[in-house]
Write a structure and sequence with these properties.
The protein is an all-alpha fold. It contains 31 helices and two strands. 48% of the residues are buried.
Length: 657
């Protein structure tokens, strides 16, 4: 009896793992529509959301965006943050500045066409995300065709794109309108990649020129597209057998596009990247020692960066819990001696080793690891500080590498078991889709977003402050009268936590002053405003609110507590901060009049009348003060002026004349 030949497993390029044609023909035929439809469908429940988070910076409170078409020149001329801050200097609060005009131009056009409708902006985000998923499928399919049969390339590309589309990490990008910069950046980068692959495969160099244009547009959306200067040539090495580094010169249009962008960026916002600020909310590598903020030591900086890199890997695999805020100290300070940091070091060394070992073999896992590390590098805080420890949106572009590897692994791990592979993939996609759809409602508006995520980012000073501020904003709206005090006291809890985390947080001090003002706890409000001014003596909002609080305290002490000396003391402090405030002068006139100090009353009433010259009621008060001072002629003269200005003034004041 002849011995049976041992069957040898075929390589990925043999197509041995592809499903039966009858089971896959439908999927392959409609793959593009399937992934595009999945990407769009997952975000249908965001369409009726409001603006949230950084939408204020690029849309609702950006003076150029709000001007519509006429604001486009300003968006091209200045740093992206300039239209929000509306003054020089503040745009560079984060080291290096930001020049990303393309997405705000989209928003300006939408402002002109749709009147700033958040519905239309959310709809466009969902549609663009669906289009991005279709483009990703095309790009991965084109990439893999150079190494394997078309069916197998389609098979892996479809799995990878489905996993990418469903990943819950992408909710920040799609559900937040401002996240369109990430969508457009990746779209432009993928278009440049696909065009380059097509140019090489079809021997049509003109397509590389188009690739350069696509990458230029991607860079105008966000700077991290520049990492594709490495991704594109390296992908050719891995997936095109006849490609050699010497052929990289043919990619000159792509390199030229990057150089053109860098030149324009430098011309607009300057060439100096600036020094990292000594402010914890714009530079996470700052800590408080005694009463002074200092930069992290080298061991602390690298330990914290490596810990965040580990968090990124964890979120790719297990995307729960999610939060939009990773500001200090949601990410705690770590040192190079921490065991968890060494775990991160070992995992990332393994990724680097995977790239090195797979370089000559041109293996897909090696390329996926390279793509992930390359696209993450620019937002990792290793090359330059990005203003926060980490962010889920920073994984949007790198997650393509993870999805590609996972799609390949699902095929490679279960050769010949197409049904099982499909089932396992579908289960992951369904699970992630459920998490995505469940996460989307959190992005409804600032109130929902902040009050939800603060339960996760408990130690984020920024989010504690934002939550407190939003609670105050909502508490004073009509309809919330019964809940007002409870909401403001909850705000105080969050704001106090923010100051505990970041004692130099002047905005939290300001908001605490506002909260206590609304609670009529005026001495405490005054203390918080004074603390804010001790942190920044030129803090205009704190100065203004302190003056208002002195005035409100003066009114309260007089009208409610009947404490005339205390009332006058507070009002004088308010007057010292702003001598031209009408209400302060009016109240001082009343207070001194009640205290029978008639000359002082006349003085302040007269000052108030200078501010509002047509105020008939003040003329009556001045007349009364002259009567009380014993000057009947002047009293009658002022009453006559009041009656001439407003014949009904005495009736309005409940007086007979």
């Amino acid at each position: 009896m002849a011995a049976k030949k041992k069957s040898t497993p075929k390589s990925i390029s043999s197509g041995s793992t592809q499903p039966e044609q009858s089971a896959t023909s439908f999927l392959f035929r409609y793959a593009t529509w399937l992934v595009a439809g999945l990407g769009f469908a997952l975000y249908i429940n965001t369409l009726f959301h409001d603006y949230a988070l950084d939408d204020a910076i690029v849309i609702t409170e950006n003076m150029f965006t709000q001007e519509g078409f006429s604001g486009i020149p300003g968006l091209l001329k200045y740093d992206t943050f300039y239209g929000f801050f509306k003054e020089e200097g503040k745009a560079n609060l984060v080291a290096g500045g930001r020049y990303r005009p393309l997405t705000p131009i989209f928003f300006a056009v939408e402002q002109s066409l749709f009147g700033g409708s958040p519905f239309m902006s959310h709809l466009l985000n969902a549609l663009l995300y669906g289009g991005l998923c279709a483009l990703l499928f095309f790009t991965l399919q084109r990439l893999l065709i150079g190494r394997m049969e078309k069916n197998m390339a389609t098979w892996i590309a479809l799995l990878a794109t489905g996993l990418f589309a469903a990943h819950p990490l992408h909710t920040e990008v799609v559900a937040n309108i401002k996240g369109r910069d990430e969508i457009l950046t990746l779209m432009g980068s993928l278009a440049a990649w696909w065009l380059t692959l097509k140019a090489v495969d079809t021997k049509r160099p003109i397509l590389v020129l188009y690739a350069g244009i696509a990458l230029f547009l991607a860079l105008l959306s966000k700077e991290n597209a520049i990492t594709f200067l490495a991704v594109i040539p390296v992908s050719l090495w891995f997936f095109r057998k006849d490609w050699t580094p010497s052929k990289a010169i043919s990619l000159w249009p792509v390199a030229l596009a990057a150089l053109a962008f860098l030149f324009i960026r430098g011309a607009v916002i300057g060439w100096n990247t600036g020094e990292p600020p000594l402010e914890m909310l714009n530079n996470p590598f700052v800590k408080l020692v005694g009463n002074q903020y200092v930069f992290f030591s080298g061991a602390e900086r690298w330990g914290t960066i490596l810990f965040t890199l580990l968090n990124y890997l964890e979120l790719l695999v297990l995307p729960i819990p999610l939060t939009h805020d990773y500001y200090p100290r949601h990410i705690a300070i770590h040192n190079l001696g921490d065991p968890i940091v060494w775990l991160s070091i070992l995992l990332h060394i393994s990724l680097v080793v995977t790239v090195i070992k797979g370089w000559k073999k041109r293996s897909l896992p090696a390329f996926a690891a390279f793509y992930y590390l390359a696209t993450l590098s620019i937002v990792s805080n290793i090359i330059f500080p990005v203003g926060t420890n980490m962010s889920e949106r920073f994984l949007f572009m790198p997650s393509v590498g993870f999805a590609l590897f996972l799609g390949w692994l699902l095929v490679q791990r279960f050769p010949g078991k197409a049904a099982f592979t499909w089932g396992l993939t579908a289960s992951i996609i369904l699970l992630w889709s459920g998490l995505t759809v469940a996460r989307n409602p959190v992005w409804k508006n600032n109130f929902t977003l902040f009050t939800t995520d603060v339960k996760t980012s408990v130690n984020s000073a920024k989010l504690q402050n934002a939550t407190g501020g939003e609670l105050i904003t909502q508490a004073i709206l009509p309809g919330n009268e019964l809940r007002k005090e409870a909401m403001i006291r909850e705000a105080v809890t969050h704001l106090t936590k923010a100051v505990e985390i970041h004692p130099g947080y002047k905005n939290a001090c300001l908001l605490l002053g506002n909260a206590h003002n609304y609670l009529k706890e005026y001495p405490t409000a005054i203390e918080w405003y004074q603390r804010a001014l001790s942190l920044d003596p030129d803090y205009g909002e704190a100065k203004n609110n302190l003056q208002i609080t002195y005035r409100d305290a003066g009114r309260y002490m007089g009208e409610v507590n009947n404490d005339l000396p205390a009332s006058i003391e507070f009002l004088k402090k308010a007057w010292a901060l702003n001598q031209n405030d009408f209400e302060t002068n009016r109240l001082l006139g009343i207070a001194f009049g009640i205290g029978r100090q008639h000359e002082e009353a006349i003085q302040y009433f007269t000052k108030a009348l200078e501010i509002q010259p047509d105020n008939a009621e003040l003329m009556v008060y001045i007349g009364n003060a002259w009567f009380n001072a014993g000057d009947t002629l002047k009293g009658n003269a002022w009453h006559d002026k009041a009656r001439f200005k407003d014949p009904q003034v005495f009736e309005k004041l409940g007086m007979k004349k």
